Amino acid sequence: MEVADLHPWPATPREAEEIQDRLRPMLDLDGPGPREPRTVAGLDVSYAGDGGGAGVRLAAAAVVLDTGSLEVVAERVVTGTAAFPYVPGLFAFRELPALVEALRALPVSPDLLVCDGYGLAHPRRFGLACHVGVLTGLPTIGIAKTGFIGSYDPPGRRRGDGSPLRDGGEVVGRVLRTRDGVRPVFVSVGHRVDLDTACHLALALTPRYRLPETTRRADRLSRDALAAR
DNA sequence: GCGACAG
DNA sequence: ATCTTGTCGC
């Protein structure tokens, strides 16, 4: 599929922040977005050894599933190196080059992209899911496993229960329970999808496990590719 | 000033 | 993210 170019590429954290601020206005936050996408792609990256600085070996995977059956429609994985050190708030610059390469190799263009991390729930309102959305033009959502910014009250214990994630007086996401009695995930919108639809999709992708089937598939594929060396 | 801090 | 043993539970 087609993906916009990444340049200019930042050499410093300051430049990376400027890029986020410059791309932020490109976001489409009007919903509702695809409620019944036919295909959904999951993105994830695995690292070899200590994953702190730039240059460490990594593998990025994109796995496209049929939304109804959750069967794999297409998948691509590429290996490379971390393009940026890990800095909270600039996480996207670490794996974006490899993810873009994997996406470009896909023989199909998915109806939705699910990122492992945050979208709008970000210090400058431009997390990985937003960045991927602007680059691809596709609807994107972010589903993170742990907290980053914002405050919230614990959601109810049942699958489907959720509570608003608030930051600076605004709702930037939702803490959503995808399985009964299991730790919730953090859902935020990326591009061209509203929060209710994002949570609806998150639940459709978690019929059995806490994390979306898309993320689980991409995680396994990237991990295997790394091990294959 | 002191923590917290997506992956 | 990744490094890791044992341990609890279905």
From TrEMBL:
Major location category of this protein: cytoplasm
Protein residues bound to Mg(2+): D44, D116
Requisite cofactors: Mg(2+)
CDD domains, A to Z: Endonuclease_V (cd06559)
EC number(s) stated in the UniProt entry for this protein: 3.1.21.7
Keyword Protein transport: no
Site (Interaction with target DNA): Y86
Localization terms from the record: Cytoplasm
The entry's keywords: Cytoplasm, DNA damage, DNA repair, Endonuclease, Hydrolase, Magnesium, Metal-binding, Nuclease
Record GO terms (molecular function): endonuclease activity
Record field: catalytic activity: Endonucleolytic cleavage at apurinic or apyrimidinic sites to products with a 5'-phosphate
Enzyme class: hydrolase
UniProt-listed InterPro entries: Endonuclease-V
PANTHER family listed in its UniProt record: ENDONUCLEASE V
Family: Belongs to the endonuclease V family.
HAMAP family registered for this protein in UniProt: Endonuclease_5 (MF_00801)
Its job: DNA repair enzyme involved in the repair of deaminated bases. Selectively cleaves double-stranded DNA at the second phosphodiester bond 3' to a deoxyinosine leaving behind the intact lesion on the nicked DNA.
Protein name: Endonuclease V
Species for this entry: Actinomadura yumaensis
